[in-house]
Design a protein that fits this description.
Layout lengths: L7 H30 L12 H8 L43 E13 L8 E13 L4 E13 L2 H7 L3 E19 L3 E27 L3 E28 L9 E11 L14 E11 L1
Antiparallel strand pairs: 1-2, 1-8, 2-3, 3-4, 4-5, 5-6, 6-7, 7-8
Length: 289
């Protein structure tokens, strides 16, 4: 048997050596891959590569937010808001340009003074409407329309031979206003200016007439039997008090005001009627914005 293995033995040995070498090479390659993929375990705990940290710490895709949307360190979270019309630095930034609009509306009663008390006029009522612009929170200017209706004394009416009468004064005034005192809810102001007036004096008689709508009936109403008018210069000066009834931050405020109004109406002549200059003190209550 030994003699017969002399030839094939060398070939068999070479085959076995090649197979063993191949097996060793495959084992070494597998061991190398296993070592490179295993985490580096150290006494301080496992460590990860920087790419892994980026993957785990990135905020992209979390709740729809992106890390690029986060503000830079030290930057302000948001710019300070800017409101209002910056062309008018006298007002705080939070006010709008509409805060400069001024409005007044009121009504009250009035009484004549001076020459008008000499048998020409007696007490009456007034209406006041106006609008304008506030340059600052204290100073502004308004254009006002004021209507004063005063009665005529009975003795004067009897002398004329009428049964009734009234004096209507239409005032168109350009009035600056100055709020010289202002607290949390209360305040005070001065106003005054000049303009022109349309003064109309009417004498009336009662007349009975028939009026028909769905049926006819008789009514008694005053009818103007005589009148005269004049358009002249006028001026006024007043003092008012205010109260912020809707809160100290509200622009609306109730006011009570007294003015002196002077109307330069003509005196009576041989060719024209007239009652001379007119002085009035209208007392008005209302709202200011």
């Amino acid at each position: 048997m030994l003699a017969n293995c002399d030839r094939p033995c060398p070939l068999l040995r070479r085959t076995l050596i090649a197979v063993a070498a191949l097996a060793v090479g495959v084992s070494l390659s597998a061991a190398a891959q296993t070592t490179s993929s295993a985490p580096d375990v150290s006494p301080n705990g496992p460590s990860f590569s920087s790419s892994s940290q980026t993957a785990y710490l990135s905020t992209d895709g979390l709740g729809g937010f992106s890390s690029s949307a986060l503000p830079a360190e030290g930057a302000s979270a948001s710019a300070s808001p800017q409101y209002g019309n910056q062309k008018y630095p006298q007002y705080p930034n939070y006010t709008s340009k509409w805060s400069h609009i001024a409005i007044v509306a009121g009504a009250g009663f009035g009484t004549p003074v001076g020459n008008a008390t000499h048998g020409y006029e007696t007490w009456g009522y007034n209406l006041d409407l106006g609008g304008g612009w506030m340059f600052t929170k204290k100073v502004g200017v308004l254009f006002e329309y004021q209507f004063d209706r005063m009665k005529i004394p009975g003795a004067t009416i009897a002398e004329v031979g009428a049964q009734g009468g009234n004096i209507n004064t239409h005032l168109f005034l350009f009035d600056p206003v100055y709020y010289f005192y202002s607290r949390h809810r209360t305040g005070a102001y001065l106003t005054g200016g000049a303009g022109f007036s349309r003064k109309v004096t009417n004498f009336t008689d009662l007349s009975e007439g028939e009026e028909c709508y769905y049926f006819c009936y008789y009514v008694t109403q005053p009818v103007t039997v005589a009148n005269f008018s004049s358009t002249q210069m006028a001026a006024d000066l007043g003092l008012g008090l205010t109260w912020k009834a809707f809160g100290q931050d509200s622009r609306a405020r109730f006011f009570a005001e007294a003015r002196y109004v002077f109307v330069d109406s003509p005196k009576p002549t041989t060719t024209a009627n007239g009652e001379g200059t007119e002085g009035l003190i209208p007392v008005t209550f209302g709202l200011r914005f």
